[in-house]
Structures
1.
Amino acid sequence: MSAIPPQTPPPQTSLALPASDVSPRVGLVGLITLFSYILLCRAWPQVVEAFSLPTPREVMSGPFSALLAMLLTGLAMAAWSVLVEKVHRNPSTGIDWSRPRAVADSIDISSTKLAALWATWALIGAFYGLGRWYWDGQYLFAMEVIGAAIVPMIVLSVPYVLWLDRVLIEPKDHAWHFGAMLLGREGWDAGQIKKHARSWAIKGFFSAFMISILPPGFAAVVEANPAEFLGDPVRIGMLLFELLFVIDVQIGTVGYLLTMRPLDAHIRSGNPFLAGWLAALLCYPPFVYGFMGGGGIIQYEYNTVGWGTVLQGHELLAWIWAGWLVFLTAVYAWATFAFGIRFSNLTYRGVLTNGPFRYTRHPAYLAKNTFWWCSTLPFIVSSGSLADVIRNTFFLGVVSGIYYWRARTEEAHLLGEDPKYRDYYDWMQQHGLITSRLARLWRRGNPRPVQGQLQPAE
């Protein structure tokens, strides 16, 4: 991983908005499936009674119900992608279905890749074993799920790799290079091995985290009784935040797990920049605990009272503020399900130009950070201490700066990978509802762009 290379700001052009590599209908199918299953879980006691089923009359809010929600959502999106949108025939899959090889012609390549795959999983398992945080709290559920899945994964990987290598145009991908190095075969390339390592480091790290956070929000939504607090804007707002975060987590988890070529959802490349990894990892456990979490060095919620308390007694303003925060959270969730089955951090998996990405290049970061500022209100503290006000405001600004840093490193990665993203970048500079305005403000303050300077990421 290297530093971000110098880049010249993209020139002003009159390009049309490039077509998105992801259809908006994929995420919509996932959303409908997820909502349908949540409704079933909430209505399960009535279903049990109506059909006299030999099961407890309780809502299905447990952790394995949350896991099933994710699996059903993923299967629905994958089925739509293949059966309706025929993504398996996209040239970007690297597959030629019309000229399958005989298994005997590709068995040597496949066996090398299987060795690489199993060795990679062993390394990820060793990382899980060494990481103490994986064996406490919410991560215990993820370890249980992954532990139960590993044997089926090993068994199913054999027919999957044998089948896929028959139709891949170039079967010697980065997995083959890693396997060739392990087995002492000639022809492996160190660059391809780094590509393999980055892709699987991303999947291993983030998949465990995403699985671990599936149960809490799902349980809260399934068990909620909105009738108890319909007149309370704060509690209604909190419930809607939870529901929208469930959408984000459920569909986001699907994205990490379904990185498959036949779905055209494979990882083309992981972010090669060390700065990109540092910026991203600071925002997730276990690293976040020492920085942004309770007692962390950039914790920004000391003696804050929050929007609900500040607006107590101002009912109309509280409803307006709750609506604004729900809108921001909805944009954040929209930015995730717009990816369909291709969501993940630190990866290039195609270019997305529709949904909220038509208005800003980084809708999730923009919405999330605006939400934090508007919900935390770091400049209002219960202690009356000016020092708390200054510290909270400063450190929330640092957090927003980290997300700005993440955005820039992601742009540097994508600008170097795909001409379509460069066209999208240029179009957004001129026409993006939010991006173009920020770009104009930037140009006013920087009338003479310096060589090697990136335009600001919003």
2.
Amino acid sequence: MRIVLILLLLAIQGVQAAEYKSNKSCKECHEKIYDEYRMSAHSKGFFTDELHREVALKASPKRYECAVCHMPAANNMSDILSGNAFPDPSNVTHTDAVSCYFCHTIAYVKESHKFNINLPAKQAEGYKPSLFGSLKDPDHNDKHSALHSPIYRANACKGCHSHKLNDFNTTIFEAMKPGEDSKECIKCHMPMLPGGVEKLNHKNRTEHMSHRFPGIRDENFRKKGVDIAVTSKANTIMVTLVNKMPHPLIIQPARAKYLRVSVLRGDKKIWSNYKNSPEEDRKSYFAYIFKKNGKRINIPATATETIAHNLPAKGSLKLEYRVPSLESGDIVKVELILRLAKRDCSKVVTLKEYIWTEEQIIKSVEYKVP
């Protein structure tokens, strides 16, 4: 599989003859879009995303196999994948991460069993490149021509955000089922914002699609993806968790989400669904677990088995908790918690940035016992 991929990328690189346009060069005309993009996860790559870099190095210290999606504009992709070259901080096609230029030169998304591949359009040598997007009447400038392409409303996200299987045919992540398209992704993660796509706005556009790609790290955005309902009867608490999203609750292999259910009486916590670790309550702990030959491992690259405790797209889960006693006026507090790097990650990689390991609240509700 790796050999086939390298040969395919060699063929692709052979037709990308037009001069690469860096992210910063886009800022001259698309300042608002650039500022949004700089706040997005797409702007983070090998050099700026600590968790991704440490896991990638642990999985393959001599070969950056994640480059196809995390460094797709690399001008030496075949060497990167084969191990003959390594990410270079002086190479802008490496430091641009998921670059503006790459995303807007996709001509076709090739679907395959293990993972999909974005195929860029052929660019004529000596001419300014052609960039694609969803606008019906796009704006040209002195750096590039602009063309409308229907894939930017339907399929563009499928190249990297659909699914990934490792070399042992084991699922590492799955956000989309075969046959699904990107329309739901775009509706949520590229909402319309006021203002045109260009600084000068020659065509007086009143709105544009956000390039901030709000997601799990956005405190307000992530609340919209779930509902939590709480009721009680005698000494039983009933909690219903609803996944409103068109993809599973857990997608990325490093993450964990879990419920923390507490009963508060006055200023005291009299009961909780776990004491030390959220994994004690397995039914409300959502994460991927990877195994190799029957033994649990923490880096999915060599896994031979995946166990996913997940909540499917548009799915719901009803939980019941028996508690020692409930009194009128008690407060039942239910929090859905996020960790960008679950505790297992600390066993194999060192993460200096606190954001990866801190508990972050996705949504919190309180119920007063009648």
3.
Amino acid sequence: MEFDPRTQTLRCPGCGTSIEITNDREKIQEHAVTREARRTIRAGEKTSHTMICQGCGAKVEVEATSTAAECPYCGSKYVLADKQEDVIVPDGVVPFRFDKKEAGIKFQEWVKGRFWAPGELKHLYQKDRLQGIYIPYWTFDAQSESDYMADGGIRHVQTYKNSKGETQTRTYMTWHPVSGHIGHFFDDVLIPASRKLDEGLLKDVDQFDTREVASYAPEYFSGYASECFTVSLDEAYIDAHREMERRLEDFIRSEVLARYDDVRNIRMTPFFSAETFKHILLPVYTTAYKYKDEVYHVLMNGQTGQIEGEYPKSIFKIALCILIILAAAGLVFYFIG
């Protein structure tokens, strides 16, 4: 039986029999960010195999009975790892919301919108290169309080007469010291627990609705792979604070700009309390393909269907477009002349 994203059940593809998957949201726990909590994290019972990609070295967890043979990151072949890695049981999982067939249709529509892409790209979805994989994430909650100081600028327009007696205007800014306080609760700040995917692409598709997190159940992974986390909790905690501080700076900038025309030299002293974390898995469809010795990646959010990707540009299409433009310009000059 395999997980069916459409019905959110475990379903037999042969006879259609479905089994409900228990979602006990009380099991989705937030853990206090303390050294003791980090030390007491334990690996759960392992029911999967650790596979290592021969091409990029990614470590992926697959079912013991899985026939998946290609890496979702670079397309190379898997080999069984000599050492089976421990797996930390996630606190929750956002299940896939549509199946591989529907993902292929979405990918095809995305490809059709890539005018400059070579024709070969349009057939990738037919080659079974699109794979569903659960990506590990850390999430962080925190109550933040921050005093801040900054310079608020007021724009002035001055009218004056130049040496010739002509009236002119000039614009200048006067800067004024500003201070204030920002309080904000951060809920589920997402930090990837893996570095294998392109950070820019992943950032563009990781707008997940974590309110749909379900309690962990192995049934969600039937027919899908999941990656082992490789970013430690300590590393992720530092990244989360950087992200929170970046957002706080944006809040401060918006608050100052509500009263001034410009802002500069933002300084703040953030304090975080009631900090918690959890480890979850999020759904992504991914494909990797080679085109003239270059590897390109496309990612699709398995919850929302949002797609971001790299693709080669067809030299033929670019050259043809240039020729058409030159021909059109030539005709215009011909008729004008």
4.
Amino acid sequence: MRILKNISLLVLFCVFICGCNNKIKVGSILPLTGDDYFCGQEIKNGAELAIKNQENLLNKKLFFVVCNDQSSKMNSIKYYEKLASDKNICAIIGGGNSTLSEEIAAISQKKIILPLIVPSASLKKITRYGENVFRIGFLDDVQGKCMAKLAANDLNKKKVAILYNIDSKYSNAIVKEFIKNFSEDGGKIELMLGYSQLENDFRTLLNKIKANNLIDAIFIPDYAYNAALIYMQAHDLGIDCTFFGTDTWEEISSQISDAYVLDDIYFCSHHFVYNQNDKAKFFFDEYKKKYSKEPSAFAALGFDSASILIESIKLSNSTEKNDILSTLKDINYNGVTGNITFNEYGDPDKELEIIKINNGKNSFYKLFKSNNIA
């Protein structure tokens, strides 16, 4: 009886060990609530779709563990520590915007270092924290230059006003590149007006712009919740000119109840959902089937983040972090948001798509090659 009991315990132990080793976990830290909920939810949906499309990986079950940082930097740090302590987590996808992603990249150097794939954050510094950090979207520098060239060369706007968030690294980095390149291309900044993160009444600044009859465009490189407020207040004041935004304007229609008032707007995007190769069409159709809505560019970035990680695990035939990192450095992946290869810093060389909004409707305007403007 004692022998049978010991055999039973041994069998149970073996089953437990096999069960623990028969899973692969991908962690994620995203803002599913709070100010940055839109990009967080969309990234999660896209990544989740890619992972659920891969039922088994290396003969193991693939799991997606999502932590909601509630748009809080402190929560981002807390959840990295939680995920990094789980031995089954092989990599992390996150965060949402640049501020949240920077916190995760920084803490990843102090704790257990895991491969970190940043879907949409564009602050240059993020990938400079360590060799474990890889970015799927383009940088602030690139979109600042892109929008300057679009304004000056393509749309012949020569007198521009800039409204920017003085408390935002994202806003400041883009403004710096826009000013430099717009001036080099013959444009002039008529007014440069800053505001604080907590400000919600922009009418005084907008009236200064309205009083200057030379201004033919306004550039607002800020997150959608501020951009939407500024645009609507400008609309109420009767300011009629072209508006330029950045990649976060992807979600501006979600911030406005009457989206049809959005007009004569240009912004750069990581992916326009109607520009579809075979992989993008599969993603578009599957996303719409699962979530009953069309995907945004953030969803496409989430899908590519998870897909490129899955591909790296397949190519390395391993879930060991050093093997995954080695494969990521040399990967050449044709994704939904374009062909992805990483430079020495973990940044991609990609295309930027310019989207135009007329009467609340998005349409593709132009494609920029990042290596031609960087």
